[in-house]
Amino acid sequence: MFGGGGSAQTTAFLETARALGRTPELLYRPHPNLAGQPLTLDRVEAVRQLRAARELAPRCREARSLWVATTIATAGGAAPRTGRPYGCWIGTTLDDEWRGRRAGLTAAHRLAFGASLPALRQLERRVLRGAKRVYATSPGSREAITTAAGIDDVEILPIPVDIERFRPISDEAWRAQLQQPVLVFVGRAWDPRKNVALLLEALPLLRRTIPGARIRLVGEPPRCALPEGVDATGAVADVAPHLRDATLFVLPSHQEGFGIVAAEALAAGVPVLSTRSHGPEELVLRSGGGRLLETFSPHELAATAAELLRDPATLETMRRQGREYVEREHNPTTFRLLLERALDSIDND
Q1: What integer pLDDT is reported at residue 201 of this predicted model?
Q2: Which pTM was predicted?
Q3: What single-letter DSSP state applies at residue 278?
Q4: Which range among 7-21, 94-108, 135-149, 215-229 shows the weakest confidence by mean pLDDT?
Q5: How many whole angstroms from its chain centre is CA 78?
Q6: What are the CA-CA distances from residue 8 to residues 112, 152, 255, 264 (Å)?
Q7: What span, in angstroms and rounded, lies between the C-alpha atoms of 270 and 290?
Q8: Residue whose C-alpha is closest to residue 156's, from 349, 340, 346, 335
Q9: What is the C-alpha separation between 219 and 231, in angstroms, rounded?
Q10: What is the average per-residue pLDDT within 150-179?
Q11: How far apart are the C-alpha atoms of 215 and 231, rounded to whole Å?
């Protein structure tokens, strides 16, 4: 149903709402499984979203409090149909998501989705402009949402991180890993938006300087043979142990709404090396817990990783600052207070 940051966002909303004494219900229309399924109008994204809006609207009218808490606002088309106040908590925008995904799609898929874009943009704008309150997950997504909706008063509701589960290993144990550093990626490595090819291309260049460096891909592996020095775990029940074992966490994505796993890496005391993919940029800059790349060049990625791996003092500072930032800004207790205030702002209308 969901994955990555979308799953973390939805889960945080539901679990925290329950902790606040609410009884949330998740309403959604499942995405059709394209593999081996007959051709239907549900393959057209605009048609699927409009049908979902029509089908879910009656149940939304009955809710005590109505929220669109999802990655992209187009999934919340039922909300403006109800004629009642509702809130939005959105991870990214349609256009940002589309720019990140289009490069890896076939020409037929690009054509099909491109045909839906005008209707989907209209739906996204209707959902966002109809909300009483709109929240983004990061400064980067706030800027994109403000542009997409033509509104100015978008606030930030940061996705919380389990700071107990993502706890760092000792500095001594981490220093020992520098002898054979492991660069970790977490996510769907086959997804073109995640741009794992950039990381794989950089590894041979990095190993010219750091011969013992390795890459570990945590999550669904790429649909290609893995080069020497790369291990893939497949899907895992818990990413926390794999992050704690990392010397450096690398996020090579074309686009991220927030980049929840980057925040989890910082919480685990792992410095983050990230492309400028919108969501994680503010996280890395404000925390001081990592470094941003200026380009999508494997040479720059390899050179920057090598520079960091040869500078343990800087990495240790990043470990400490990253952890402190997540403890302060993405603490579940803080999120609970912010969400309670947001829920009340809708209920009290």
Answers
A1: 97
A2: 0.86
A3: B
A4: 94-108
A5: 24
A6: 29, 26, 17, 11
A7: 9
A8: 335
A9: 11
A10: 92
A11: 6
**Cα gap 76→57, rounded to integer Å:** 10
Q: Which two tokens stand for residue 324?
A: 């402190």
Long-range CB pairs of 288-293 (<8 Å, 24+ gap) are 288/317, 288/318, 288/321, 288/322, 288/325, 289/318, 289/319, 289/321, 289/322, 289/323, 289/325, 290/249, 290/262, 290/266, 290/318, 290/322
Q: How far is CA 192 from CA 46, 97, 111, in A?
A: 22, 11, 17
Backbone phi and psi for residue 215, each to the nearest 5 degrees, phi listed first: -115, 140
- Cα gap 299→302, rounded to integer Å: 5
270-313 pLDDT, tens per residue?
999 999 987 788 899 999 999 999 999 999 999 999 999 999 99
Diameter of the chain by CA atoms?
A: 62
Q: Which long-range contacts (CB under 8 A, 24 or more apart) does 40-43 make?
A: 43/112
Q: How confident is the model at residue 223 (pLDDT cuts 50, 70, 90)?
A: confident
Q: CB of 185 within 8 A of CB of 301?
A: no
pLDDT at 30 over 80: no
The answer to whether the beta carbons of residues 293 and 304 sit under 8 Å apart is yes
